[in-house]
Specification:
322 residues, mainly beta, Glycosyl hydrolase
């Protein structure tokens, strides 16, 4: 089914045109490590976390200690993605986009538009040149020149409602966007011809990742699916949980995908798309995101702070397995 409403507002905006308006910098907080964080990323040997009140943290010693980095905004930050060892991007509420060009030591405002009353949900750079920002009201921003210009496309299942977009993933030439209310969109030709994929259930999807030629899509009430990137056929994975699933990350060896969610749930899926282990953490925290660096897994949650676990700890079939 062709997408009825793709309002390609070819708004090619230069980096300087993404005007900086007055913003309040985040306060330096003694208990910043206890804040609620919504996303994490790794750049070289540094781990970064972003979250409430504009807080940005980094660790250079595998999470033993954390340093608060000066942030030019005090709004909630929802996503972080590095496109190279020097360049990274952060997005958040109030239509905020921040950029670093020194590996995350300093961040500057590239866009801040509180008057728009919108916010961005996530950011994903797949190369130094190509990246995406996803937001409320169906906003998908695409850059193919390292953030110098951006193109805005609005995605919608129905003409009267623009779905809030949560995540995007690519397999070869196929791009997939997941959103609230079961909205799933794909493109196979340079983002110019988006189509709707019929959803296997009516609820929202909060994330998407990839295993070989399959997308892994997850959302409410333990709903977890494989979507073949070529045939667009669905295959349900029995997650053995009814918890909301909110974040995912692939291990460095690409052999396992970890999916996390509410109630401290951590699912381990192998490269064949099979659920091989389920762990319920002792904290029972509602996990919001995770990132993996080597043997270490870093997790953020609504309880605040950042937990660290090991890959071997989570993949042991006798540890909390179900």
């Amino acid at each position: 089914m062709m997408l009825r409403i793709i309002l390609c507002l070819m708004l090619l905006m230069s980096g300087s045109a993404l005007a900086e308006t007055l913003a309040r910098p985040a306060l330096e907080m003694p208990l910043s490590t206890k804040a609620i964080f919504l996303d994490l990323d790794v750049n070289e040997d540094k781990v970064f976390a972003v979250g409430e009140r504009g807080i940005i943290l980094s660790s250079t010693d595998s999470g033993k200690s954390w340093k608060q980095i000066k942030s030019p905004v005090d709004v909630t930050l929802t996503g972080i993605s590095f496109s190279s060892k020097t360049t990274g991007w952060i997005v958040g509420h109030e239509s905020t986009i921040l950029q670093t060009t020194d590996g995350g030591e300093t961040w500057v405002i590239k866009r801040y538009k509180p008057e728009e009353e919108r916010f961005y949900m996530s950011v994903n750079f797949v190369s130094p040149q190509q990246g995406y920002v996803l937001g409320t009201d169906g906003e998908l921003w695409i850059t193919e020149d390292a953030g110098e210009t951006w193109k805005l496309t609005l995605l919608s299942v129905e003409e009267w409602y623009q779905n809030h977009l949560f995540a995007i993933e690519q397999i070869t030439d196929t791009s997939l966007v997941v959103s609230e209310r079961g909205g799933i969109f794909y493109s196979k030709d340079k983002f110019s011809n988006w189509q709707v994929v019929p959803s296997p259930y009516e609820g929202s999807f909060f994330g998407v990742n990839k295993l070989a030629k399959d997308f892994v899509v997850f959302g409410m009430s333990g709903n977890l699916y494989l979507l073949d990137s070529e045939t667009l056929e669905w295959k349900k994975i029995n997650s053995k949980t009814d918890q909301f699933l909110l974040g995912s990350a692939i291990t460095d060896d690409a052999k396992n995908l970890l999916v996390v969610g509410r109630g401290g749930i951590i699912l381990v899926i192998n490269d064949q798309g099979e659920l091989v282990n389920t762990v319920e953490s002792k904290s029972r925290a509602d996990y919001t995101a995770l990132t993996i660096h080597g043997e270490n897994v870093y997790l953020s949650s609504m309880s605040g702070g950042i937990e660290k676990m090991s890959i071997s700890e989570l993949t042991k079939s006798d540890r909390g397995g179900k």
